[in-house]
């Protein structure tokens, strides 16, 4: 067939009403039909650009015509068109969606001379022609979307287009490219009439373990700037298994044509981690990328949900240029009012973030709707930007057209790396701040739907082991600061920290092994500290029990002192004692980051001590436990807590039970007001006193969880305990579920239920250990939840249990078991009017023993502290010595404000100070601090997390 004209039939009168709203196959068909006609062979043969006709009004004479009809308008084709096509020797191709297949069909209808070169001659130039066709359509549609008339010099454009096609026909590659360049320049000039500033295009490539091979290498060989979202564990995997890919990554990074997006070693459940855990994950990620690539991420982003208001200050401290403020898998996050803003976190720190949710680069609909998306960004964004996300090799052919357009001219936008984007663009002037309640992770539902075992346990285990590592670091630091000769001794704490980040804590065996290793390290650090405080006990020398405190606050502990000959004397360290059935116990007080000796040197003779212990009467009377701070009454029918009372206010503070939430009709996920859920009934079979002394009281309840119809759906053992002088009520639960659980973990679970009698002034939950106001219904709070009125503060301490739901107005369910969870033992607690619930939460979680054993009592101080912070709302999260050639010259510590109140903290240490400065999280000095003697003063804003460097 001698080709005279090539045309597309469209269901619109003109480009003014071009259908951009289609998706799926319809979008593929539209773009396929349009761009396929922009083949240089067709243009050179006809000597003109493709024609456009209405589908309901095609030409009457179709002799020598090639006609493409998208699938969306096949039904509107005139009934006689097919006959005319057959009679007049034309070609009609309908409902095609694959451009390569369409081109093959077209080539079969052409003359032999043209068919031979149709796909083989200068294939890169052919692809550039198709990209030009896509670009022309997008530019014209964008012009109309921006309410402008086209300013394209159509005559010059057609002349250059035909000249480029004729050069291709003559195999003149450079001349064809030159004419194509002129076409793209003309389109750029036309676009610049209504929007003279470049739009920024972000090509974001996601990778996983299954996408590290050839497809990723091909992606890296592209000509345009790329952004690779990769956690450091994937970089490790590439280095180990894909050396060629690693080499390409290094080349693109060195040429500044690639931005590494990420930062962490692994994409963990960030909103449920402590700040030290988050910091350790980032540090290991940076070290890994620096080692493998010579470059670490400077833009934060991740595929799994990982947004939290704590991030801006951590990322700023680590030197990040910006972050991506959106999630790519699920979860809830607040939308930004602009594509690029300053995100202010919980503290005053802020960071440049990009909040434009990515478009799917693998979808033709994304390209078809590009004029609309670009127009919205040009109209409303301070910085016009679009983000496209895809897996390696999974972008659509039409997105590849956009990449080719970029190599000629930024007609539709300029592809940039995220590092360039943040460095070279401005944000709106105002700060944007969101409360933690605006962010909700999808982890729980995802884990249950994926049939992941022990998800709740893994959160508890990580918090427990991370705290144990931090305590081990504190013990090691104490020993080094007391005895500089220990400074050069090796420690495996860093290796254990890395192992914790890499471990699968849903696996019971991995958890037990790692827990054992960390406890061994803690025991070694405790023994090292004990050796610096006092020598080992020798027969004939004064001896005593040495206890250490690896936390940054004073601890009161119930300890066994049976190794002593008689009960120790009550005094500054020993607050109370008791001897029952040959077991000697004491309540002792140990200063922060310090130690204390307990001895019987000043005790009365043994015969007198045994007759008159210092403790008072038993704390237990029937089903009532009373330590003069709180009174706990156990319900004889349920075995749960009937009431908790203080001695300041009237009335019950809290009631507690165990229950299974039964299936109910569907109700809104965010509302406890619509329908009251149904629960099992807690029925006690026995309640026995398992501890009853003047220092501790414990009642153990055993029973069943009963369906209202009488069926047994679970059994339980609950131990409720109080100690002398403490405001904390401990609850140990052993649960044996019987009933199967359903797929929605927020509506089918075994829980520890709490109820309170009156309205609250506010509720506060832990976020990375600190206390934040909340009004959420589904709560993430692994440490604590505070119920606050004008006169009372009741703290629910969860020991790492992360999820809770306000099932009713004055009731809270703490989820113990959901589908897939195998843990059966749980520890919780209730704190009555404690001012620092984060400290009580840390004590409840600790697995590091404070008992250093019998030691020879030194002639010096019998107790002491090594680091002290006077601000009660400031915690020391990490404390390490500064070494210079093996010599201790000072210390470095990280501080966290916990209550949302500005603080002026005085930090005291062992010796007079010669230099004190605040440093960023990369170790660079950023502010000199005021100091006097052994004390340095640090100003902290609400929820601020910072690091200081102090030298002696």
General description of the model:
- The chain is α+β, with helices and mostly antiparallel strands.
- It folds into four domains: 5-192, no CATH class; 200-441, 7-stranded beta/alpha barrel, CATH 3.20.110; 620-665 and 672-845, Golgi alpha-mannosidase II, domain 4 (Beta-galactosidase, Chain A, domain 5), CATH 2.70.98; 867-952, Immunoglobulin-like (Sandwich), CATH 2.60.40.
- It has 23 helices and 50 strands.
- The strands form nine sheets. Strands 5, 6, 7, 8, 9, 10, 11, 12, 13, 14 and 15 form an eleven-stranded mixed beta sheet that branches. The chain has a nine-stranded antiparallel beta sheet with strand order 27-28-29-30-39-36-35-32-33, covered by helices on one side. It has a six-stranded antiparallel beta sheet with strand order 26-25-31-38-37-34, with no helix packed on it.
- Helix 7 (154-169) runs antiparallel to helix 8 (173-192), helix 19 packs parallel to helix 21 (508-533) and helix 20 runs antiparallel to helix 21.
- The chain is elongated, with a radius of gyration of 35 Å.
- The chain starts with a strand and ends with a strand.
- The model is unreliable at 606-613 and 667-674 (pLDDT under 50).
């Amino acid at each position: 067939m001698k080709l005279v004209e090539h045309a597309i039939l469209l269901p619109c009168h003109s480009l003014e009403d071009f259908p951009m709203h289609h998706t799926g196959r319809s979008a593929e068909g539209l773009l396929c039909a349009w761009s396929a006609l922009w083949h240089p062979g067709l243009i050179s043969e006809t000597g003109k650009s493709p024609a456009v006709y209405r589908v309901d009004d095609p030409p009457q004479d179709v002799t020598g015509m090639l006609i493409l009809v998208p699938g969306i308008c096949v039904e509107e084709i005139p009934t006689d068109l097919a006959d005319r096509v057959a009679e007049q020797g034309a070609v009609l191709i309908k409902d095609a969606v694959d451009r390569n297949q369409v081109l093959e069909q077209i080539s079969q209808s052409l003359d032999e001379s043209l068919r031979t070169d149709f796909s083989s001659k200068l294939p890169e130039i052919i692809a550039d022609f198709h990209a030009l066709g896509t670009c022309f359509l997008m530019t014209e549609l964008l012009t109309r979307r921006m309410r402008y008339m086209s300013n394209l010099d159509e005559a010059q454009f057609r002349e250059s287009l035909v000249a480029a096609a004729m050069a291709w026909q003559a195999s003149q590659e450079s001349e064809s490219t030159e004419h194509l360049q002129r076409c793209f320049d003309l389109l750029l000039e036309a676009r610049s009439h209504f929007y003279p500033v470049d739009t920024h295009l972000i090509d974001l490539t996601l990778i996983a373990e299954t996408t590290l091979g050839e497809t990723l290498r091909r992606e890296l060989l592209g000509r345009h700037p790329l952004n690779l979202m990769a956690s450091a564990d994937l970089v490790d995997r590439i280095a180990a298994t894909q050396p060629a890919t690693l080499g390409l990554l290094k080349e693109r990074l060195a040429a500044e044509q690639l931005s590494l997006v990420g930062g962490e070693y692994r994409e963990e459940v960030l909103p449920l981690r402590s700040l030290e855990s988050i910091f350790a994950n980032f540090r290991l990620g940076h070290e890994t990328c620096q080692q493998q690539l010579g470059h670490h991420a400077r833009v934060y982003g991740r595929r799994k949900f990982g947004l939290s208001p704590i991030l801006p200050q951590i990322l700023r401290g680590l030197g990040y240029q910006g972050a991506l403020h959106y999630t790519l898998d699920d979860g809830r996050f607040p939308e930004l009012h602009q594509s690029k803003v300053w995100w202010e976190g919980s503290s005053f720190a802020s960071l440049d973030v990009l909040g434009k949710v990515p478009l799917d680069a693998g979808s033709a609909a994304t390209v078809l709707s590009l004029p609309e998306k670009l127009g919205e960004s040009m109209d409303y964004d301070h910085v016009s930007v679009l983000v496209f996300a895809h897996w390696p090799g999974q972008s659509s052919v039409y997105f590849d057209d956009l990449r080719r357009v970029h190599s000629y001219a930024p007609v539709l936008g300029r592809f940039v790396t995220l590092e360039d984007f943040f460095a070279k663009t401005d944000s709106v002037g105002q700060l944007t701040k969101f409360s933690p309640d605006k962010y909700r992770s999808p982890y729980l539902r995802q884990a249950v739907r994926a049939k992941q075992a022990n998800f709740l346990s893994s959160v508890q285990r990580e918090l427990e082991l991370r705290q144990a590592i931090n305590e081990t670091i504190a013990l090691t630091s104490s020993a080094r600061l007391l005895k500089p000769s220990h400074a050069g001794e090796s420690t495996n704490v860093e290796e254990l920290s890395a192992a914790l980040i890499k471990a699968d804590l849903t696996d019971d065996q991995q958890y037990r092994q790692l827990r054992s290793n960390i406890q061994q390290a803690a025991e070694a650090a405790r023994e090292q500290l004990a050796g610096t405080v006092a020598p080992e006990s020798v027969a004939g020398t004064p001896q005593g029990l040495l206890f250490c405190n690896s936390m940054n606050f004073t601890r009161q502990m119930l300890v066994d002192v049976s190794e002593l000959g008689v009960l120790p004397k009550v005094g500054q360290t020993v607050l109370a004692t008791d001897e029952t059935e040959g077991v000697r116990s004491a309540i002792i007080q140990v200063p922060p980051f310090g130690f204390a000796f307990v001895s019987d040197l000043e005790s009365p003779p043994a015969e007198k001590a045994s007759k008159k212990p210092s403790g008072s009467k038993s704390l237990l009377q029937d089903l009532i436990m009373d330590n003069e701070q709180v009174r706990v009454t156990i319900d004889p029918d349920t075995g749960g807590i009937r009431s908790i009372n203080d001695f300041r206010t009237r009335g019950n503070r809290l009631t507690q039970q165990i229950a299974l939430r039964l299936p109910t009709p569907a109700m809104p996920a965010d509302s406890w007001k619509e329908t009251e859920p149904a629960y099992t009934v807690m029925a006690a079979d026995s309640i026995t006193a398992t501890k009853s002394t003047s220092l501790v009281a414990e009642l153990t309840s055993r029973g069943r969880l009963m369906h209202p119809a009488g069926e047994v759906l679970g059994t339980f053992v609950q131990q409720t305990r109080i100690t002398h002088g403490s405001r904390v009520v401990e609850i140990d639960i052993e649960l044996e579920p019987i009933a199967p659980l359903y797929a929605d973990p927020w509506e089918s679970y075994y829980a520890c239920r709490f109820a309170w009698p009156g309205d609250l002034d506010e509720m506060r939950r832990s976020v990375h250990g600190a206390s934040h106001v909340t009004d959420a219904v589904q709560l993430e709070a692994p440490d604590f939840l505070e119920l606050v009125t004008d006169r009372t503060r009741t703290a629910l301490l969860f020991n790492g249990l992360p999820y809770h739901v306000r099932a009713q107005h004055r009731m809270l369910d703490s989820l113990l078991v959901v589908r897939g969870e195998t843990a059966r033992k749980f520890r919780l607690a209730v704190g009555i009017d404690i001012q620092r619930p984060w400290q009580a939460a840390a004590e409840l979680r600790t697995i590091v023993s404070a008992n250093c054993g019998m030691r020879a009592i030194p002639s010096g101080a019998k107790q002491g502290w090594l680091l002290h912070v006077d601000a009660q709302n400031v915690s020391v999260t990490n404390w390490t010595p500064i070494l210079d050639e093996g010599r201790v010259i000072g210390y470095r510590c990280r501080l966290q404000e916990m209550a949302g109140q500005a603080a002026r903290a005085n930090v005291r240490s062992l010796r007079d100070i010669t230099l004190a400065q605040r440093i960023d999280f990369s170790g660079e000095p950023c502010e000199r601090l005021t100091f006097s003697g052994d004390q340095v003063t640090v100003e902290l804003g609400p929820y601020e997390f910072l690091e200081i460097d102090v030298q002696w």
